[in-house]
Amino acid sequence: MSRRRRGFTLIELLVVIAIIAILIGLLLPAVQKVRDAAARTRCANHLKQIGLAVHGYHDTNNGVPPQATYTIGSAFSGYSIHARILPYIEQGSLAGRVDFALGYAAQPDVCKTPIPLYRCPADPRDGTRIDGGVEFSPTNYGFNIGTWLGLDQQTGTGGDGAFGYNLRHRFDSITDGLSNTVGAADVKSFTPALLDGNNPAAPQTPPPNTPTEVVAYGGTFDPDYCHTQWVTGRTLQSGMTTTFPPNTRVLYTTGGQTYDVDFTSARVGPGSPPQTYRVVTARSYHTGGVNVMFMDGSVQFVTNSITQATWRALGTRAGSEVVGSW
Predict the structure, then answer these.
(1) What confidence tier does 1 reach under pLDDT thresholds 50, 70, 90?
(2) Of 88, 106, 183, 326, whose CB has the highest number of CB atoms within 10 Å?
């Protein structure tokens, strides 16, 4: 007698498929968490190497690198801190091609060169951006210029942060303590911006308390301007401020869409108000906060829940604030 071989029934196949789908659904979030954790660790390591480079620059040049150099009354085309620490991140060949006597736009081959260390592995954006006919490569790390002031064009100096225009101070002038002063943090490349509305124009304007106040100052909207030029010393390209805590959304609506923006009151140069202001928020692709390099070279993960007062206190170099636990 022949024996009939029994196969799977349709119901059995559907049950097996359902079980496989459930297992995949359980596995994928775990895999994604592992990938996110690995990207966050690699990102922190990038900031650690940047911190070591800043220390190497300081020891060699007897001071920190300036955010950019600026001559009162001139147009701006100053190189960034990123450009100045190239010899200390094993980019000596590229550093040798940089002529600081020229504006960065006069050296387009330098501007478009990508630096892997300056890019967060979690950033989904890639490529370059054209500005003024020059091709630029982006960055995911901004150096801290302080709370709000970008540049006082009457004195030619920057704000209250660890870095600023024409500032070449030594570590011992950071009286708040190196471990209590933000040096650099995550930023998002291709961030939208409100630019050059010339408001506020009043000298010594206090920093805004809410994002709504910032948006009310207005300006020209650019959908992908910020942190697309690691070579440039402009705050919106290679810096950040501690106006608001990490990942605070500064929402601006135009054309039926809402964008999370950075802000500058005016460009540096002749015809601008005496003082220019910036809101450039630390943002990341990591859940819950941002990687931060402190001026002692340590890197810590600062959560979005840090208070505005504490974040601003950590952003100043000599504010004499009392910083509690955070």
Answers:
(1) very low
(2) 183
